[in-house]
Amino acid sequence: MIRRSAPKKTLRYRLHLLTPQSGAWLVETKKLFNHSAEWYFGVFEAYPDFLNLKSNEVVPTIEKKTHRTKHNPRPKIAPPAEIDALPAYVRRAAIMAALGSAKSFFSNLNQWKDQKEKFEEKARKKKKKLVFRVRPPVPPRVWNRNPSFYQGLYKNFTGKNVMLKLWTGSNWAWVKFGITGREVPDGWSVGSPQAINRNGHWYLHVPIQKDEYEVPKKVEEQRKEKEILICAVDLNIGRNFACCTIQNSDGTILATLYIRGAEALYGRRKRELGRVAVRRSQTGILQPDVQDNQYLWRHIRAMGEYEAHRISRRIVDFAVLHEASVIVFEHLGHFQPHKGKYSVRGNEKRSYWLRGKIVQFSKYKAWNEGKITCRVNPAGTSRFCYWDGTKLVRFTPGQLIVGYTEGAPMVYCPTCHHLENADRHSTRNIGHRFFSPPKPSPKWDGVRPSAHERKLGKRVDVARPTTERGKARTGWHRPARLSPPTVSLVEATPL
Fold first, then answer.
1. Of 114, 229, 275, 432, which sits with the fewest C-beta atoms within 10 Å of its C-beta?
2. pLDDT in tens, 140-168
3. What is the pTM of this model?
4. CB of 333 within 8 A of CB of 379?
Protein backbone atom coordinates (compact mmCIF):
# COMPACT_ATOMS: atom_id res chain seq x y z
CA MET A 1 0.00 0.00 0.00
CA ILE A 2 1.42 3.35 -1.07
CA ARG A 3 1.05 6.19 1.42
CA ARG A 4 -0.44 9.53 0.49
CA SER A 5 2.82 11.30 1.33
CA ALA A 6 4.77 9.31 -1.26
CA PRO A 7 6.06 11.46 -4.14
CA LYS A 8 3.81 11.57 -7.19
CA LYS A 9 4.14 13.02 -10.66
CA THR A 10 2.62 12.60 -14.10
CA LEU A 11 4.29 11.48 -17.31
CA ARG A 12 2.80 12.61 -20.61
CA TYR A 13 2.92 10.34 -23.66
CA ARG A 14 1.93 11.19 -27.21
CA LEU A 15 -0.56 8.68 -28.63
CA HIS A 16 0.10 7.60 -32.22
CA LEU A 17 -2.96 6.23 -34.01
CA LEU A 18 -2.08 2.92 -35.68
CA THR A 19 -5.52 2.63 -37.36
CA PRO A 20 -7.61 5.45 -38.88
CA GLN A 21 -10.63 4.56 -36.69
CA SER A 22 -8.71 4.86 -33.40
CA GLY A 23 -9.26 8.62 -33.10
CA ALA A 24 -13.02 8.30 -33.65
CA TRP A 25 -13.20 5.50 -31.08
CA LEU A 26 -11.43 7.69 -28.50
CA VAL A 27 -14.04 10.40 -29.12
CA GLU A 28 -16.89 7.89 -28.73
CA THR A 29 -15.39 6.58 -25.50
CA LYS A 30 -15.11 10.10 -24.10
CA LYS A 31 -18.75 10.89 -25.02
CA LEU A 32 -20.05 7.75 -23.34
CA PHE A 33 -17.89 8.38 -20.26
CA ASN A 34 -19.20 11.94 -19.85
CA HIS A 35 -22.79 10.81 -20.44
CA SER A 36 -22.38 8.22 -17.67
CA ALA A 37 -20.74 10.70 -15.28
CA GLU A 38 -23.57 13.19 -15.89
CA TRP A 39 -26.20 10.56 -15.06
CA TYR A 40 -24.41 9.54 -11.85
CA PHE A 41 -24.11 13.21 -10.90
CA GLY A 42 -27.93 13.34 -11.10
CA VAL A 43 -28.03 10.42 -8.67
CA PHE A 44 -25.88 12.33 -6.17
CA GLU A 45 -28.01 15.43 -6.71
CA ALA A 46 -31.22 13.48 -6.00
CA TYR A 47 -29.75 11.55 -3.05
CA PRO A 48 -27.17 13.85 -1.38
CA ASP A 49 -26.90 11.46 1.60
CA PHE A 50 -24.54 9.34 -0.52
CA LEU A 51 -21.95 12.10 -0.18
CA ASN A 52 -21.71 11.49 3.58
CA LEU A 53 -20.43 7.95 3.08
CA LYS A 54 -16.77 7.04 3.42
CA SER A 55 -14.73 7.19 0.23
CA ASN A 56 -14.36 3.40 0.07
CA GLU A 57 -18.12 2.88 0.58
CA VAL A 58 -19.46 5.21 -2.12
CA VAL A 59 -18.81 3.03 -5.19
CA PRO A 60 -20.20 -0.24 -3.72
CA THR A 61 -23.29 1.57 -2.44
CA ILE A 62 -24.01 3.30 -5.76
CA GLU A 63 -23.50 0.05 -7.67
CA LYS A 64 -25.99 -1.78 -5.41
CA LYS A 65 -28.58 0.95 -5.93
CA THR A 66 -28.15 1.38 -9.71
CA HIS A 67 -26.63 -1.73 -11.32
CA ARG A 68 -28.66 -4.74 -12.48
CA THR A 69 -27.18 -8.11 -11.56
CA LYS A 70 -28.40 -11.69 -11.23
CA HIS A 71 -29.05 -11.20 -7.54
CA ASN A 72 -30.37 -7.63 -8.00
CA PRO A 73 -32.58 -7.68 -11.12
CA ARG A 74 -34.57 -4.59 -10.09
CA PRO A 75 -32.32 -1.92 -8.61
CA LYS A 76 -33.84 0.99 -6.75
CA ILE A 77 -32.54 3.50 -9.37
CA ALA A 78 -32.78 2.03 -12.87
CA PRO A 79 -30.09 3.35 -15.24
CA PRO A 80 -30.37 3.61 -19.03
CA ALA A 81 -29.41 0.54 -21.01
CA GLU A 82 -26.12 1.98 -22.33
CA ILE A 83 -24.97 2.84 -18.78
CA ASP A 84 -26.11 -0.47 -17.32
CA ALA A 85 -24.02 -2.32 -19.93
CA LEU A 86 -20.79 -0.50 -19.06
CA PRO A 87 -17.76 -2.55 -18.01
CA ALA A 88 -17.27 -2.52 -14.25
CA TYR A 89 -14.16 -0.34 -14.25
CA VAL A 90 -15.66 2.18 -16.67
CA ARG A 91 -18.72 2.46 -14.43
CA ARG A 92 -16.57 2.98 -11.33
CA ALA A 93 -14.46 5.62 -13.07
CA ALA A 94 -17.64 7.49 -14.05
CA ILE A 95 -18.94 7.27 -10.46
CA MET A 96 -15.71 8.73 -9.09
CA ALA A 97 -15.78 11.56 -11.64
CA ALA A 98 -19.38 12.37 -10.69
CA LEU A 99 -18.52 12.14 -6.98
CA GLY A 100 -15.78 14.77 -7.29
CA SER A 101 -18.07 17.16 -9.18
CA ALA A 102 -20.92 16.61 -6.70
CA LYS A 103 -18.74 17.29 -3.67
CA SER A 104 -17.44 20.47 -5.28
CA PHE A 105 -20.92 21.66 -6.21
CA PHE A 106 -22.51 21.06 -2.80
CA SER A 107 -19.52 22.57 -1.02
CA ASN A 108 -19.82 25.77 -3.07
CA LEU A 109 -23.59 25.76 -2.54
CA ASN A 110 -23.22 25.54 1.25
CA GLN A 111 -20.68 28.37 1.22
CA TRP A 112 -23.09 30.50 -0.81
CA LYS A 113 -25.92 29.79 1.65
CA ASP A 114 -23.72 30.76 4.61
CA GLN A 115 -22.65 33.94 2.84
CA LYS A 116 -26.28 34.82 2.13
CA GLU A 117 -27.33 34.23 5.75
CA LYS A 118 -24.55 36.47 7.06
CA PHE A 119 -25.50 39.17 4.58
CA GLU A 120 -29.18 39.05 5.54
CA GLU A 121 -28.38 39.03 9.25
CA LYS A 122 -26.14 42.06 8.82
CA ALA A 123 -28.92 43.82 6.88
CA ARG A 124 -31.41 43.09 9.68
CA LYS A 125 -29.08 44.57 12.29
CA LYS A 126 -28.66 47.72 10.26
CA LYS A 127 -32.40 47.78 9.55
CA LYS A 128 -31.83 48.31 5.86
CA LYS A 129 -33.32 46.65 2.82
CA LEU A 130 -30.32 45.21 1.02
CA VAL A 131 -30.41 42.77 -1.88
CA PHE A 132 -27.95 39.87 -1.99
CA ARG A 133 -26.79 39.88 -5.60
CA VAL A 134 -24.27 37.02 -5.59
CA ARG A 135 -25.54 34.28 -7.86
CA PRO A 136 -25.71 30.73 -6.52
CA PRO A 137 -23.52 28.00 -8.01
CA VAL A 138 -25.09 25.74 -10.62
CA PRO A 139 -24.39 22.13 -11.61
CA PRO A 140 -22.07 21.55 -14.57
CA ARG A 141 -23.85 22.55 -17.75
CA VAL A 142 -21.38 20.81 -20.07
CA TRP A 143 -19.47 17.66 -19.17
CA ASN A 144 -16.01 17.48 -20.67
CA ARG A 145 -14.20 15.07 -18.33
CA ASN A 146 -11.32 13.00 -19.62
CA PRO A 147 -11.85 9.22 -19.44
CA SER A 148 -9.76 7.32 -16.90
CA PHE A 149 -8.55 3.81 -17.67
CA TYR A 150 -8.60 1.78 -14.48
CA GLN A 151 -6.95 -1.58 -14.09
CA GLY A 152 -8.50 -3.88 -16.66
CA LEU A 153 -9.02 -1.10 -19.21
CA TYR A 154 -5.36 -0.91 -20.30
CA LYS A 155 -2.63 -3.50 -20.71
CA ASN A 156 0.79 -4.12 -22.27
CA PHE A 157 2.01 -0.67 -21.21
CA THR A 158 5.63 -0.33 -22.35
CA GLY A 159 7.75 2.60 -23.38
CA LYS A 160 6.60 2.23 -27.00
CA ASN A 161 3.09 0.68 -27.05
CA VAL A 162 -0.10 0.42 -25.01
CA MET A 163 -3.50 -1.21 -25.49
CA LEU A 164 -6.69 0.60 -24.38
CA LYS A 165 -10.24 -0.71 -24.12
CA LEU A 166 -12.44 1.65 -26.20
CA TRP A 167 -16.10 1.97 -27.16
CA THR A 168 -16.46 1.65 -30.93
CA GLY A 169 -20.10 2.71 -31.00
CA SER A 170 -21.42 -0.86 -30.93
CA ASN A 171 -19.09 -2.85 -28.63
CA TRP A 172 -15.93 -2.62 -26.50
CA ALA A 173 -12.65 -3.55 -28.20
CA TRP A 174 -8.94 -3.55 -27.40
CA VAL A 175 -7.09 -0.99 -29.54
CA LYS A 176 -3.32 -0.71 -29.83
CA PHE A 177 -1.52 2.67 -29.83
CA GLY A 178 2.07 3.70 -30.24
CA ILE A 179 3.40 6.06 -27.55
CA THR A 180 6.42 8.34 -27.25
CA GLY A 181 7.60 9.96 -24.04
CA ARG A 182 9.79 9.52 -20.99
CA GLU A 183 10.43 6.11 -19.52
CA VAL A 184 9.05 5.25 -16.10
CA PRO A 185 11.98 5.60 -13.64
CA ASP A 186 13.05 2.65 -11.54
CA GLY A 187 11.31 2.35 -8.18
CA TRP A 188 8.11 4.06 -9.37
CA SER A 189 4.74 2.37 -9.96
CA VAL A 190 2.21 3.28 -12.66
CA GLY A 191 -1.34 4.46 -11.83
CA SER A 192 -4.50 4.75 -13.91
CA PRO A 193 -3.82 6.80 -17.09
CA GLN A 194 -6.12 9.36 -18.70
CA ALA A 195 -6.66 10.08 -22.40
CA ILE A 196 -6.57 13.83 -23.08
CA ASN A 197 -7.15 15.65 -26.36
CA ARG A 198 -5.12 18.83 -26.68
CA ASN A 199 -5.05 20.92 -29.86
CA GLY A 200 -6.26 18.00 -31.95
CA HIS A 201 -3.66 15.55 -30.61
CA TRP A 202 -4.30 12.74 -28.15
CA TYR A 203 -2.04 12.29 -25.12
CA LEU A 204 -1.90 9.71 -22.36
CA HIS A 205 -1.26 11.19 -18.89
CA VAL A 206 0.15 8.47 -16.65
CA PRO A 207 0.44 9.17 -12.89
CA ILE A 208 3.35 7.47 -11.15
CA GLN A 209 4.34 7.30 -7.50
CA LYS A 210 7.37 6.13 -5.59
CA ASP A 211 7.23 2.66 -4.08
CA GLU A 212 9.62 2.91 -1.13
CA TYR A 213 9.72 6.29 0.56
CA GLU A 214 10.56 7.52 4.04
CA VAL A 215 8.92 10.78 5.06
CA PRO A 216 11.57 13.30 6.20
CA LYS A 217 11.39 14.67 9.73
CA LYS A 218 10.02 18.10 10.44
CA VAL A 219 12.35 21.09 10.50
CA GLU A 220 11.95 21.58 14.27
CA GLU A 221 13.01 17.99 14.91
CA GLN A 222 15.99 18.07 12.56
CA ARG A 223 17.23 21.37 13.98
CA LYS A 224 17.86 19.70 17.34
CA GLU A 225 20.09 16.98 15.87
CA LYS A 226 23.83 17.46 16.25
CA GLU A 227 25.05 15.55 13.19
CA ILE A 228 22.71 17.22 10.71
CA LEU A 229 23.94 18.65 7.40
CA ILE A 230 22.11 21.48 5.63
CA CYS A 231 22.38 23.11 2.22
CA ALA A 232 22.18 26.90 2.60
CA VAL A 233 21.23 28.70 -0.64
CA ASP A 234 21.67 32.39 -1.43
CA LEU A 235 19.65 33.37 -4.52
CA ASN A 236 20.71 36.39 -6.60
CA ILE A 237 19.86 38.21 -9.81
CA GLY A 238 23.39 39.36 -10.62
CA ARG A 239 26.36 37.34 -11.78
CA ASN A 240 25.38 34.07 -10.05
CA PHE A 241 21.95 32.54 -9.94
CA ALA A 242 22.72 30.94 -6.60
CA CYS A 243 25.50 30.07 -4.16
CA CYS A 244 25.03 26.83 -2.22
CA THR A 245 27.08 25.63 0.75
CA ILE A 246 26.93 22.42 2.77
CA GLN A 247 27.19 23.21 6.50
CA ASN A 248 27.12 21.21 9.71
CA SER A 249 25.62 22.32 13.02
CA ASP A 250 28.68 24.34 14.10
CA GLY A 251 28.71 26.40 10.89
CA THR A 252 31.65 24.74 9.15
CA ILE A 253 31.35 24.84 5.34
CA LEU A 254 32.14 21.46 3.80
CA ALA A 255 31.39 22.17 0.12
CA THR A 256 30.45 25.12 -2.09
CA LEU A 257 28.63 25.37 -5.42
CA TYR A 258 28.21 28.47 -7.61
CA ILE A 259 25.47 28.33 -10.25
CA ARG A 260 26.31 30.91 -12.89
CA GLY A 261 24.54 32.18 -16.00
CA ALA A 262 22.37 34.99 -14.61
CA GLU A 263 23.99 37.65 -16.79
CA ALA A 264 23.42 35.63 -19.97
CA LEU A 265 19.74 35.06 -19.13
CA TYR A 266 19.33 38.75 -18.25
CA GLY A 267 20.69 39.72 -21.66
CA ARG A 268 18.54 37.26 -23.64
CA ARG A 269 15.39 38.23 -21.77
CA LYS A 270 16.10 41.97 -22.16
CA ARG A 271 16.49 41.50 -25.91
CA GLU A 272 13.11 39.77 -26.15
CA LEU A 273 11.40 42.40 -23.98
CA GLY A 274 12.94 45.10 -26.18
CA ARG A 275 11.39 43.46 -29.23
CA VAL A 276 8.01 43.45 -27.52
CA ALA A 277 8.35 47.16 -26.71
CA VAL A 278 9.35 48.01 -30.30
CA ARG A 279 6.43 46.08 -31.81
CA ARG A 280 3.99 47.66 -29.38
CA SER A 281 5.21 51.12 -30.33
CA GLN A 282 4.79 50.27 -34.01
CA THR A 283 1.24 48.97 -33.49
CA GLY A 284 0.08 51.84 -31.31
CA ILE A 285 -3.20 50.15 -30.31
CA LEU A 286 -3.60 47.07 -28.12
CA GLN A 287 -6.88 45.17 -28.12
CA PRO A 288 -8.37 44.48 -24.67
CA ASP A 289 -8.28 40.86 -23.49
CA VAL A 290 -6.08 39.89 -26.45
CA GLN A 291 -2.49 38.81 -25.87
CA ASP A 292 -0.06 40.62 -28.17
CA ASN A 293 3.23 39.14 -29.40
CA GLN A 294 2.24 35.66 -28.32
CA TYR A 295 5.37 34.00 -29.70
CA LEU A 296 7.72 36.38 -27.88
CA TRP A 297 5.86 36.09 -24.59
CA ARG A 298 5.81 32.30 -24.89
CA HIS A 299 9.58 32.36 -25.48
CA ILE A 300 10.14 34.61 -22.45
CA ARG A 301 8.08 32.35 -20.19
CA ALA A 302 9.83 29.25 -21.52
CA MET A 303 13.25 30.73 -20.72
CA GLY A 304 12.21 31.39 -17.12
CA GLU A 305 10.65 27.95 -16.67
CA TYR A 306 13.70 26.22 -18.10
CA GLU A 307 16.16 28.08 -15.89
CA ALA A 308 14.02 27.56 -12.79
CA HIS A 309 13.92 23.79 -13.39
CA ARG A 310 17.64 23.65 -14.24
CA ILE A 311 18.76 25.60 -11.17
CA SER A 312 16.42 23.82 -8.76
CA ARG A 313 17.60 20.46 -10.07
CA ARG A 314 21.27 21.42 -9.53
CA ILE A 315 20.51 22.62 -5.98
CA VAL A 316 18.71 19.39 -5.06
CA ASP A 317 21.36 17.19 -6.69
CA PHE A 318 24.06 19.08 -4.76
CA ALA A 319 22.20 18.45 -1.48
CA VAL A 320 21.69 14.77 -2.33
CA LEU A 321 25.36 14.33 -3.26
CA HIS A 322 26.53 15.58 0.14
CA GLU A 323 23.65 13.96 2.08
CA ALA A 324 22.18 17.23 3.35
CA SER A 325 18.74 16.68 4.86
CA VAL A 326 17.43 20.28 4.76
CA ILE A 327 17.69 22.92 2.02
CA VAL A 328 17.49 26.43 3.51
CA PHE A 329 16.41 29.46 1.45
CA GLU A 330 15.77 33.07 2.33
CA HIS A 331 12.17 34.26 2.63
CA LEU A 332 12.44 36.85 -0.14
CA GLY A 333 9.30 38.89 -0.49
CA HIS A 334 8.11 42.15 -1.98
CA PHE A 335 10.86 43.42 -4.26
CA GLN A 336 10.05 46.29 -6.61
CA PRO A 337 11.96 46.95 -9.86
CA HIS A 338 13.83 50.21 -10.30
CA LYS A 339 12.49 52.91 -12.56
CA GLY A 340 13.69 52.82 -16.15
CA LYS A 341 12.79 51.56 -19.60
CA TYR A 342 10.12 48.94 -20.11
CA SER A 343 12.64 46.21 -20.93
CA VAL A 344 14.74 47.03 -17.84
CA ARG A 345 11.82 47.09 -15.42
CA GLY A 346 10.21 43.99 -16.93
CA ASN A 347 13.51 42.14 -16.89
CA GLU A 348 14.21 42.92 -13.24
CA LYS A 349 10.65 42.00 -12.24
CA ARG A 350 10.94 38.61 -13.92
CA SER A 351 14.27 38.05 -12.20
CA TYR A 352 12.44 38.38 -8.88
CA TRP A 353 9.76 35.99 -10.09
CA LEU A 354 12.46 33.51 -11.08
CA ARG A 355 13.71 33.28 -7.50
CA GLY A 356 10.24 32.34 -6.31
CA LYS A 357 9.97 29.65 -8.99
CA ILE A 358 13.34 28.21 -7.98
CA VAL A 359 12.13 27.82 -4.38
CA GLN A 360 8.81 26.36 -5.55
CA PHE A 361 10.39 23.80 -7.88
CA SER A 362 13.10 22.89 -5.37
CA LYS A 363 10.43 22.09 -2.79
CA TYR A 364 8.82 19.21 -4.67
CA LYS A 365 12.12 18.00 -6.16
CA ALA A 366 13.62 17.80 -2.68
CA TRP A 367 10.54 15.99 -1.33
CA ASN A 368 10.92 13.37 -4.08
CA GLU A 369 14.47 12.75 -2.82
CA GLY A 370 13.47 12.54 0.84
CA LYS A 371 14.67 16.06 1.67
CA ILE A 372 12.78 19.03 3.05
CA THR A 373 13.04 22.78 2.42
CA CYS A 374 12.51 25.76 4.70
CA ARG A 375 12.94 29.53 4.58
CA VAL A 376 14.49 31.93 7.09
CA ASN A 377 14.39 35.66 7.69
CA PRO A 378 16.70 37.38 5.12
CA ALA A 379 17.26 40.58 7.13
CA GLY A 380 20.96 41.31 7.55
CA THR A 381 22.32 38.15 5.94
CA SER A 382 24.44 40.11 3.45
CA ARG A 383 25.22 43.24 5.53
CA PHE A 384 26.48 41.88 8.86
CA CYS A 385 29.53 39.79 9.64
CA TYR A 386 28.89 36.21 10.56
CA TRP A 387 31.61 36.22 13.21
CA ASP A 388 30.95 39.37 15.26
CA GLY A 389 27.92 41.14 13.75
CA THR A 390 29.82 44.18 12.45
CA LYS A 391 28.56 45.93 9.35
CA LEU A 392 30.46 44.65 6.34
CA VAL A 393 32.27 46.56 3.63
CA ARG A 394 31.23 45.33 0.20
CA PHE A 395 33.49 46.14 -2.70
CA THR A 396 34.82 45.02 -6.07
CA PRO A 397 38.45 43.80 -6.28
CA GLY A 398 40.65 46.62 -7.53
CA GLN A 399 38.60 49.33 -5.79
CA LEU A 400 38.91 51.03 -2.41
CA ILE A 401 37.64 48.93 0.49
CA VAL A 402 35.12 51.45 1.77
CA GLY A 403 31.32 51.68 1.91
CA TYR A 404 28.77 49.16 0.75
CA THR A 405 28.31 48.61 -2.99
CA GLU A 406 25.26 46.46 -3.78
CA GLY A 407 26.04 43.56 -6.05
CA ALA A 408 29.80 43.71 -5.46
CA PRO A 409 31.42 40.26 -5.26
CA MET A 410 33.55 40.64 -2.06
CA VAL A 411 32.90 41.56 1.58
CA TYR A 412 35.35 42.61 4.29
CA CYS A 413 34.84 42.94 8.04
CA PRO A 414 36.80 45.89 9.50
CA THR A 415 36.71 44.34 13.00
CA CYS A 416 37.83 40.73 12.51
CA HIS A 417 39.48 41.38 9.09
CA HIS A 418 37.59 38.53 7.46
CA LEU A 419 37.55 38.62 3.66
CA GLU A 420 35.25 36.37 1.62
CA ASN A 421 32.98 36.10 -1.37
CA ALA A 422 29.76 38.01 -0.61
CA ASP A 423 27.37 35.23 -1.67
CA ARG A 424 29.31 32.57 0.22
CA HIS A 425 29.37 34.72 3.34
CA SER A 426 25.59 35.22 3.06
CA THR A 427 25.09 31.46 3.15
CA ARG A 428 26.94 31.40 6.49
CA ASN A 429 24.36 33.77 7.97
CA ILE A 430 21.53 31.79 6.37
CA GLY A 431 22.81 28.58 7.96
CA HIS A 432 23.26 30.32 11.32
CA ARG A 433 19.73 31.71 11.07
CA PHE A 434 18.48 28.13 10.60
CA PHE A 435 20.33 26.64 13.60
CA SER A 436 19.72 29.67 15.88
CA PRO A 437 16.38 31.20 14.91
CA PRO A 438 15.50 34.54 16.60
CA LYS A 439 13.22 34.27 19.60
CA PRO A 440 9.70 35.56 18.91
CA SER A 441 8.72 38.81 20.56
CA PRO A 442 6.37 38.51 23.55
CA LYS A 443 2.72 38.85 22.65
CA TRP A 444 0.91 42.06 23.47
CA ASP A 445 -1.23 41.41 26.54
CA GLY A 446 -2.48 44.94 27.20
CA VAL A 447 -6.05 46.19 27.03
CA ARG A 448 -7.07 48.61 24.32
CA PRO A 449 -9.06 51.63 25.49
CA SER A 450 -12.62 51.76 24.25
CA ALA A 451 -13.89 54.49 21.94
CA HIS A 452 -15.56 56.25 24.90
CA GLU A 453 -12.35 56.14 26.94
CA ARG A 454 -10.32 57.52 24.04
CA LYS A 455 -12.85 60.29 23.64
CA LEU A 456 -12.47 61.24 27.34
CA GLY A 457 -8.71 61.11 26.97
CA LYS A 458 -8.29 58.27 29.43
CA ARG A 459 -4.90 56.61 29.27
CA VAL A 460 -4.53 52.86 29.59
CA ASP A 461 -1.14 51.36 30.32
CA VAL A 462 -0.20 48.80 27.71
CA ALA A 463 2.49 46.18 28.21
CA ARG A 464 4.60 46.25 25.07
CA PRO A 465 7.58 44.04 24.28
CA THR A 466 10.95 45.57 25.03
CA THR A 467 13.77 44.31 22.85
CA GLU A 468 17.12 45.76 21.96
CA ARG A 469 17.04 47.81 18.82
CA GLY A 470 18.27 45.93 15.79
CA LYS A 471 18.18 42.43 17.26
CA ALA A 472 14.41 42.12 16.93
CA ARG A 473 14.61 43.29 13.32
CA THR A 474 17.52 41.15 12.15
CA GLY A 475 17.36 38.30 14.64
CA TRP A 476 21.17 38.27 14.77
CA HIS A 477 23.24 37.44 17.82
CA ARG A 478 26.87 36.56 17.97
CA PRO A 479 27.37 32.82 17.51
CA ALA A 480 29.76 30.79 19.60
CA ARG A 481 32.07 29.99 16.70
CA LEU A 482 35.75 29.69 16.14
CA SER A 483 37.66 32.80 15.13
CA PRO A 484 37.67 33.48 11.40
CA PRO A 485 40.76 32.73 9.33
CA THR A 486 43.06 35.68 8.84
CA VAL A 487 43.44 36.82 5.24
CA SER A 488 45.99 39.27 3.89
CA LEU A 489 44.24 42.14 2.12
CA VAL A 490 47.28 42.80 -0.04
CA GLU A 491 47.24 39.24 -1.38
CA ALA A 492 43.47 38.98 -1.71
CA THR A 493 42.65 42.30 -3.38
CA PRO A 494 45.35 43.42 -5.80
CA LEU A 495 45.12 47.16 -6.45
1. 114
2. 999 999 999 998 999 999 889 999 999 99
3. 0.75
4. no
